[in-house]
From TrEMBL:
This is Non-lysosomal glucosylceramidase. Residues 518-878 form the Glycosyl-hydrolase family 116 catalytic region domain. Its EC number is 3.2.1.45. It catalyses: a beta-D-glucosyl-(1<->1')-N-acylsphing-4-enine + H2O = an N-acylsphing-4-enine + D-glucose.
Amino acid sequence: MGTSELDQTETHSQINCAQPATRTWQRKFDDEGKKIEMFSMTMHDVVSIIPMILKGVMINAEEKGKGRDTIYDIFRKWNVNCCRGLPLGGIGAGSIGRSYRGYFQHFQIFPALYEEKLILANQFSAFISRPNGKSYSTVLSAPSADDLKGVDKAAIGSWDWKLKEKNCTYHALFPRSWTVYDGEPDPEIKITCRQISPFLPHNYRESSFPVAVFTFTVHNSGSTAADVTLLFTWANSVGGQSELTGNHTNSKMIERDGVHGVLLHHRTADGHPPVTFAIASQETEDIRVTDCPFFTMGSSNSGDFTAKNMWEEIKKHGSFNEARTDKEPRVSKPGSSIGAAVASATTVPAGGTRVVSFAVSWSCPEVKFPDRKTYHRRYTKFYGFDRDAAAESLAHDALLEHLDWESKIEEWQRPILQDKRLPEWYPIALFNELYYLNAGGTIWTDGLPPKISVASSGTGTEPFSLDVFHTNLQGTATGTIKTTADGVLREMTSVMENLHSAAAFGAALLGDSEENVGQFLYLEGMEYHMWNTYDVHFYASFALLSLFPEIELSLQRDFARAVLLHDPRPMRTLNGKTVPRKVLGSVPHDVGLNDPWFELNAYMIHDPSRWKDLNPKFVLQIYRDVVATGNIAFARATWPAVYLAMAYMDQFDRDRDGMIENEGRPDQTYDLWSVSGVSAYTGGIWVVALQAAAAMARIVGDGDTECYFRARHQRAKRVYDDELWNGTYFNYDNSGGKTSSSIQADQLAGQWYAHVCGLEPVVEEEKARSALGTVLDYNVMRVKGGTVGAVNGMRPDGTIDMSSTQSKEIWSGTTYAVAAGMIHEGMLEAAFRTAKGIHDASWSKDGFGYAFQTPEAWTAEGGYRGLHYMRPLSVWAMQWALSPPELHKDLGPLSSPGDASIGQEKFEKVASMLRLPEEVEHEGFLRALCHIIRQLVFPA
């Protein structure tokens, strides 16, 4: 045995799987929590959005008629409860949820499809017998009485559902959880189940695996030995209706390294690709493993081995009768369901301990989208495309390697758990919010093009892309670029002669020495089906950049390609307009839904090409990622898109003072909260984007552009301060409207990003601290005593800004971002006080019950909107601020100063070609009618 193997063996021997981490989220099984309530709208809210609702219903009906998914289903009733726990699996190959009460639910294996149904057959169970004849048996979970209502007593209903909930405690710290059964079912037995998934920061192999391991540590405090059998049962189901469609089969795994198990081959329905599950356990000197490849649930024929037979077999013998279960399994019948089981038996001596591990894996190599393009998942690079072979090997390898995952996770989490600066609640929120990178509809592909592609028909209405990446960068080994504008202009004037099918595939921007780690998608939220919503990723991206920077760069490359894409195909918005789907130079709101990367902007409430925050957020994220990773090749590859994104925004500087203006509509991430003129939120982001663009120009050697952006930055910075500072904080906007003086929690988003990027602050420290102190006083502490987070908008008189649905909401991700900004300003106590409200509302026992489903928003009373949302990942921005990484700010060549006038001249040429036509407002009948009603009911 080599030195490294000895070190690994020693490390593994020190791991105690039965010991929860020092700080965890905890619940007792008998804690039923609070009933989760959706937010309610006022009459003012309803009247304001009736036209959008009606338009949305019509568009949704049309889309569904075409077999396409919709971004929001107003009629779907979600099965909300507060019993969520840690989900299973790595990143991007689907996830399976598990309640803190022990049962499995919330399957998410296919794109944008959440199957919430609890599958009662998926269980762990314990059977214990003593020499004195005493025996105990129970399922190790606690479904509610409603869940068990109507269960067939001749099938699963015959199992022993008699767990004493008060003796069971759940602990979670993503990606591990521990369930402690203290005296269950035997009063002298303590069972601890440690669940672990391969979520391993900076690891791009195992982290893609769809598998989880459950290690049971059984301790016998009694005076006699105990015979213990642990049973793992699994239904041949993906959580939906296909469980009962028939033609599913199970088969035994081939034993290797003592690993025994069963494969469950699921055919699925509704055009979804097949899935194979594997459940397995490893036999050792102390553990004997047997399996049951097939039992029936529901209607059965004479001679079938039923769920009841299976349970009685284990209860009687402690293992499966090999002669009985080795029979060739039959195909499941329509209307009936089948399952499989693996049993591990051991004898635990008096005062002794035994350890038993199980694994579950699932293999669905293909990702199929409604518009018929199919991709392969990342894990297939390591396990191939054969579903059955992959599922079997994933389970086998996980059982052999999970202790290595454990040591890597402990090494990652230990410094934060031991950081004395941090309050007790902080690591719980920090790590557990990462559940969304597993359960947020995440898809991680192998990075290759889809199986089915769409060729241009040559009609002139297809998407096209400027190929400036190659025309600008060829021959630039030194990294010096003097012709950014010239290259863009050449492409723009000739593009109509070179139409071709285009997609936002960032892999084309990879350098020769860079690895293609695949493409990454995650949903804006469980209820909001848009992939990689970019204005929200602005907040959430800190988790990926901190833990999986190569995935973050891959996502940004996709958006860099998207900026250069123009798609003139018409798209209808909910405010009644027909607009091009994607405009050249604009950053898309998202990469689509039904045909991601090819059909951008699934968002349809407003025209995203007129949003004011998307483009500057792109510039800021690109620059942040460049200086965080030191990847100069990434900087050079994305620079043309950064330049074009900045040029596109020039049209929104109406008065030519260097500052962009909002247009009296909700044209930014607060998309139901109108803003006009110079605004604290978008204006601040724009100021920093100018500075970031200048820094990018320096890195790539474009001196003229650097000088121009620096001069414009100084002008915009002066405007921001002059127009918005009121002596205490920065006004919402400078329009002079009735809500212009509102106190926006997120008013210093630009200042926050300036600190993140190591750039010059937007405002002086004293003003920043005054503004954030005002936010703490008004938006945080004057609402429920600071226990629910920061309200988006407050009025100077101390009341909540009720002008829109969103101004009166608390946004979890925004609050974390505000807290991060406070840390950068040296306001550590204020930061933790602000963020604690989000933890208390989401994660505390006395909160609103949002654990492992943190919403986008809630009201002061706890009415949620948008469960399972992306933005709360911004808690990792707090960690970035607490332990800032070393930034690579000395990238790029040394070059002589440029000429700002030359940079301006070329920039304005490009900008002039990107201007949108002037809008003509056509108010439809419904919108006009609602406007009249609103004026009558709510006069100004």
